């Protein structure tokens, strides 16, 4: 390792220790390395810009973010909520079941855990807390756990970022997330049903005859969005990036013109929020690309690849080692350093060892989503706890059974890659 790399590594570790924003940390680390190694900083910036422009996948990211914001501001989530209530509200643990099902449906439109938890998730927490029907921490825990489905079921913003770094097919990644995402929802619903019987959680009244049909008709517009997106992509009508543009236009059509539930000022607010969130994502992508260029020049990636191959592990053993490493990192780091720094550095070695990049993309995104609800970092727990004003300690305790079930799903799809790869192979 060169002296410049030593300086850059020390700087990076120090900035992470002080808790500075990871995007700025990555970019400033590259600047430190460039100055210490005598490289031109402007050339590095040029490489980042051209890499981003040349990869059309990145354009889909702000478009899907915008879609989620429009759906949230446009009142579309209310129609979905009524549909979910009619569908599963009368089951054991009714509102908790509704929370999970709404996350499954909303994930087919937003692709982002935070949008789910801070939008429709907050509405459900308030409903669950009314008349002390559910403990506040349990309501928050269900919201936190179910929000992890968002980045697994397509469209998925983390999958788009992974596709940028790995070169894997966006379409294949989207298809690969469907079965694991549905499996996550099913096991959490089974857990809620068991907890409801054990803890005496209430159920909602069975809907009147025809209520399910009427709420389905009312929600048919947003329910059709995943069908339009995936159908368009896999029929060849449009690319994943074009699908993101179609999703944004469709969300505007529903919110502003069809349902008339969103004003032009609300649409402007959604646009501003989307621009801010997209700016943060692009800062991370640029910093991650620049930092991984440094890894290539310094032959860090090559050294990692050599080490991985020298371990002579089977694919399953290697994936389990990676899972364990990410679980440990997730206790102390947020998702961003793992996604934008660690994953790109590991990928070449894992692919050289025979790991399918699509399979790895799904299981590692799931691993990182679980880390967002796992103590002590548990970023989603702090976000939901802050928004709902519920102490994070009890939320972590109530989240424990959900974390165990999600880890069980993660192990299952790791051991049986067919659960991830069956649909992509079918579509190829």
Please, could you describe this protein's structure?
The chain is mostly helical and 428 residues long. The chain has one domain. The protein is 79% helix and 0% strand. It has 23 helices and no strands. The chain has helices spanning 3-17, 22-37, 41-54, 57-73, 76-88, 94-107, 113-118, 120-129, 136-147, 157-166, 170-176, 178-199, 211-218, 220-234, 240-258, 264-297, 300-311, 315-330, 335-352, 357-371, 379-388, 392-415, 418-427. The longest helix is centred in the middle third of the chain and has 34 residues, at 264-297. It starts with a helix and ends with a helix. The mean pLDDT is 87.
Overall strand count: 0
Nearest-angstrom radius of gyration?
22 Å
Q: Please give the count of helices.
A: 23
Tell me what portion of residues adopts beta-strand conformation: under 5%
Largest sheet: none
* Arithmetic mean of pLDDT: 87
Order of helices and strands: HHHHHHHHHHHHHHHHHHHHHHH
Total domain units: 1
Helix share bin: over 70%
Q: State the oligomer.
A: single chain
Q: Return residue spans where pLDDT drops below 50 for at least 5 consecutive residues.
A: none
Q: Which class do the helix and strand fractions yield?
A: mainly alpha
Shape: globular
How far is the first residue's CA from the last residue's CA? 42 Å
